[in-house]
Structure formats: C-alpha cells, structure tokens
Amino acid sequence: MFPEDTAGPLPGRGARWGVLAGLTLVTFLLLVDDTAVAVALPSIQEQLGIGFESLQWAVNAYTLAIAAFTLLAGRLADRNGPRPIFLIGLAVFIAGSFGAGLAFNAATLIAFRVVQGVGAALVAPSALALIAVTFSSKQRGLALGIWAGVSASALGIGPLFGAVLNDSVGWRWIFLLNLPLGAGAWLVARLVLPKSRVKASSVRLDLLGAFLSAAGLVGLISVLSELTDADWTSWQVILRTGLTVVLLGLFLIHESRTRDPLVDLALFRNRSFTGANLVTLLATAVMCSLFFFLALYLQTVLGLSALAAGASLLPLTVTIVVVAPLSGGLSDRFGARALVATGMLVLAAALLGLGTLGLYSSVASLMLWLALAGLGIGLARTPTTAAALGAVDGSKYGTAAGVYNTFQATGLAVGIALMGAILTSFGPDAAFDRDFDAAHHAAFRDGLSMALTINSGIAAVAAVLAAVLLRSRLQSPPAAKTTSMAAPKP
After folding, report:
1. Fewer beta carbons within 10 angstroms: which end of the chain, N or C?
2. Do residues 262 and 388 make contact, with C-beta atoms less than 8 angstroms apart?
3. How far apart are alpha carbons 188 and 166 in whole angstroms?
4. Lowest-pLDDT choice from 47-56, 81-90, 267-276, 366-375
5. Does residue 353 surpass a pLDDT of 50?
6. Rounded to an integer, what distance in angstroms lies between the CA atom of residue 395 and that of residue 365?
7. pTM
8. What is the DSSP string of 189-240?
9. Interhelix angle for 106-134 vs 13-39, to 10°?
C-alpha cells in the first residue's frame, strides 16, 4: 500500500475523462503492436534470415516478459503510486519499440521484444489502478467498459493494422510508429494523469517473491508454448515441468510467510476476486481462438490476404467496442454475476456456430457468429475486470490489477497451447500453408472445428464459475484512508 498525507478528492469530471482517454490510447498501442506483429512474421523471417524457432521467440519473448514482471509492477504501483510506474513503463516500451524497429538479427529483435514486454508489464496494472482510483464506484464500470472495449478492439484491429504497414512501408514501422505515437501519449499522460502524494513507505519489496513468481510463470508459459512440439516423455520436458511446479510451489509458500508479500494471498479468500480471475483466465484462453486461429483459417483455408482477413474480423471487434461500455454501466448498477454468466454462455453458443465452418464457407456466413461472439465478450469482459478490482480496497488496486493481468497472460498461453495441440493432432504442419491441397486444409478445418467446440465447453464452464463465485451486486469496499489522487495542476 502507499501511504498518503491527505485524503484528496477525485479529479474533476473533465479531468477524469481526460485520464481515461490517455490510458486507453496507451493500452491500445500496446495491444495493437502485439497482434500486428503476427501478420508480419513471414516478412521478418525473410529480411532477417532467421529460423522458425527464433521467429517464435520473437513473439513469445513479449508475452513471457509481461508474465514475469506484471506482479512486481502491480506491487510497485501500490508502493510508489501508479502514475510514475505508468510513465516509466511507457518510456521503457517506447525504447524497446525503437530497438525492435532497428533490429538487425534474431538476437537483437528478441532482446528488444523483452524490453517492450517489461514496459507493457509496468503499464498494464498501473493503468487499471489509475482508472480505479480516478473514478468512483458509480462510474468505474462505465470507465472500465470503455477501456476494455478499446483494448479488445485493438486485438482485432492489430492484424489489419500490421498488414497495412507491412505491405506499404515495411514491418519495421509496426515498431517505429510507436515512437511518435508513444511520445505524444507520454506527454499527454504526464499532463492529465492524477498525482498521488506519496510519503516514504516502510513496505519492503518482496524481491525473492518476484524472482520465484517470474521464474515459475516463465517456466509455465514456455512449457505450454511447446505443447504441440514437445515429447512429454522426454526427461528434459519432465525436468522442466517439475522445476516449474517446484518454483510456483515455493512462491506460494514464501508469500504465505513473508511480512510484505508480493501478492497478499488473503485476496483469494474473497470469492468474487477469485472468480473474476478464474473467469478471466478461461475467457482469455477461449478468445485467442477467435483473434489468432480464426484469422489463420481465413488466410490458409479461404485464401484471403492478411488485409482481408483482418477486415473480416471487424464484426467481432466492432460489437465488442459497442457492448463493453454498456455492460460496464450495467455492472455499476446490477453487479457482475448475471452479465458475465450470460456473456460467457453467448460466447459458448457463438463458438459452437463457428465450429460448423467448412472448406468453402463465405465470410458473410461468419458475420453473425462473429457478432454474437463479440456480444458475449463485450458482456463479460468489463464486469469481470470491475469485479476483480471492486473486491479490494484502494491501497491494493495495483496488486489486484497485477494478479488480473497475470491470469490474463497465462490464459493466453494456455489457449494458444491448447488450440495448437488440437490442430496439429488432426494433421501435419502443412495444414497451415495455403499452397497445400484440400486434404490438408480439410484436416486443419476439422481440427479447428474440434478446438472451437472444446472452447465452447470451456466458455460454458466459465459461465458456471461466474454464476457461483461472482457477486450479484458489486459491493465496492471502502477506499483505504491512505489513498489520495489529485488532478495535476495546469
């Protein structure tokens, strides 16, 4: 927690929405950059002359860095105030983008993707904490809805954005464009973000906990990312899996005994907090099948260009952008339980519908199911975030946001690993190449259909968890007396 010297007021109405605009812009940049890189991988591989394994690390390094540093970033936001951590994180992300844009080999690209990931890890929990302390409980759901809607749209727009840049000015500009945009966002954020009056804190940073959590999460995600290729009977894989379990176990033991833990495990005694994070993990795992693997189907099986595939996902992203703020406003009045459970059931139905895809399906036939999926995600995503933050007091918003983002990153890794394992079990890697024959594409289609059906079941499980664990009405705990955020003076 971060002690304050006075109990200052919330920023004025205009200032609050200015804060939200700045935070949303930065989050959009971070997420667009991540998904935009996916469509540029062939160009990166060709220009840098790197192998497929290095190419995978260029993607995974970003996710691994986020997973490794997010919990520590959340704790830093509570200890030092979210504003300085946010600004430092954005500066680190901009520096990493500059390096990645100028990368001349696999090693430099991967290294600067790690730097980008560290910056993103510092930004994400700080952004959520800033929204939580800037808006009262009566408006927090609406604010989170706008943030969540724009964030989710970035995942869908990213491939389209990346394809346009890659085809017009080259893949490097996916990274280099972050310099002017990020610098502008940093200046705006410095002007509009509320300042916390922080006194010197006696709370020690749990560096051992940070190391154990980072090592355990990196081990978990790296093992999951190799699920499709690894021989699970080999001693190397067994050793790595065992070491990961030991590290995560030691982390939990350490956190339960240390005086100033990185994560207060007592938070998980709150049913709503636990439920929100479990639902987030499952929902994110399911969402990756839409934003990543469905785009792959559109390109490899239907033969669309990267640009056309990105545009085909617009019904999904537009629906999320429209519905997420509405569900946030509703969660302020009625709570999270009904909205999240309904949203996950709607998403389950949409995934079942998308599981009927064929070799010659038209894009038009997908639009209804994509819009329905967007409705489900939009209904569920914002109330879930609000439930995770609404279960803690103001002194722990950063920690709660760090846990939430860690579950989200882990869910992404789990989803990609599960989808990849199912797809490859139906056919060889050639199924991922549009130049191969219909038999290979049929194998890919069958695998995708099975994966979407399984994901539908996972979404249904998430709906049950939401109905059982989340509160019917959000009961925001009293703000910590030590929390104070004030709008910056002009």
Report:
1. C
2. no
3. 28
4. 47-56
5. yes
6. 49
7. 0.80
8. HHHHSPEE-BPPP-PPP-HHHHHHHHHHHHHHHHHHHTTTT--TTSHHHHHH
9. 160
Distance CA 437, CA 336 (A): 47
Is residue 9 scored above 60 in pLDDT? no
C-alpha torsion sign, points 349, 355, 360, 363: positive
Query: How far is 188 from 194, CA to CA, in rounded Å?
Result: 12
Q: How many CB atoms lie within 10 A of CB 198?
A: 17
The residue assigned the tokens 């639009």 is 367
The amino acid present at 403, given as its one-letter code, is V
For 34-85, the pLDDT digits (tens) are: 778 877 777 888 888 877 667 777 877 888 888 888 989 988 888 888 889 9
Question: What contacts 249, CB < 8 A, 6 or more positions away?
Answer: none
**Closest to 182 in 3D by CA, of 105, 109, 125, 100:** 100
Q: What is the predicted pLDDT for the residue at 200?
A: 47
Length of the chain: 490
Segment among 122-131, 230-239, 251-260, 472-481 with least mean pLDDT: 472-481
What is the residue whose two structure tokens read 């989808």?
419
Q: Please identify which residue in the block is written with the tokens 């882990």.
A: 410
Q: Residue 79 is which amino acid?
A: R
Which residue blocks in 5-105 are alpha helix, DSSP H?
13-39, 41-48, 52-80, 82-101
Kindly state the DSSP code that residue 470 receives in the 8-state scheme: S
As a whole number, mean pLDDT of residues 116-134 equals 88
Span 13-195+260-475: which CATH code?
1.20.1250.20
The tens digit of pLDDT for each residue in 453-480 reads 999 999 999 999 999 998 765 444 444 4
Residue 478: how many CB atoms within 10 A of its CB? 7
Which among 47, 24, 86 is positioned nearest to 174, based on CA atoms?
A: 47
